[in-house]
Amino acid sequence: MFEEPFRWMEAISTRHSYVREKLLKGQPVIGVPYNEGALIIGFSPQPKKIFEIYDRIALGGLGHPADVERLRMTLLDMAHAEGFNRSSEDVTIGRLLQFGLAPALKQNFEEIQRAPYLIQMLLAEISHKGSAEFFRVNYDGYWEKFKHGTVIAGDSKVRERIQKAIESTDFMLLDLDKSIQSALRMWEEGRKKPKLEEDANSSVEDNDQAEEEAEDIPTDLKEAFDSWNLEAAVLNNNTGRKCLYRTLSESEISALKLEVVQ
Description:
Layout (H helix, E strand, L loop, with lengths): L3 H20 L5 E6 L2 E8 L5 E5 L2 E7 L1 H21 L7 H18 L8 E8 L5 E6 L5 E4 L3 E3 L3 H12 L8 H15 L4 H6 L1 H13 L6 H7 L1 E8 L8 E3 L2 H11 L2
Antiparallel strand pairs: 1-2, 1-8, 2-9, 3-4, 4-5, 5-6, 6-7, 9-10
């Protein structure tokens, strides 16, 4: 009887390790503001990883595609039920997370007989006051709110490097094109190991590099554009429509590639 709490804690620790290992190869999804709204952008081997949830809400996800789709549909149903039962102004990410998704994720993760969700999520929202807000949601239901943008990534060190770059950049002074270019540069730089880390972990670096080369993972923007799909969604305050969400067209992405790939 006395051993049961320790067995449960050990099982939870094992689940954390299992999910993190499965998410390790998940490529960064970046959400940042710009002078007219908010942007979510990321590369992936296959579409889709960026979605519309409601008029003013967008979702970026990484992890198992089935889990991303399942939770996307959960959020979508919750948002429309909230809008129907109350009002569209009551459909906010904070309410969807606090009263719906986060408790469900936590319960799923702590029930050790059930398979955990293999997912991280980034949610962006334009509030009814016109400000951009960003939320990072973990597989165990823990979530954080950011005003200046955030990132999700399978590798925690990559996430930390990109997050520092986001916090040191005033995206509100940039237009959409400049924000996209800055976010892509952060994506590229964030995946590079700092020199000090390389020197301190040379043997680990060799193993990581060998694994990366074996799997043909793109190492820069040119390779990423050539090998993967770039997805980008914009929430624009100045559309004049109720729905602020739109995705970048293929022509816009092609023009963007010419600007950032040298």
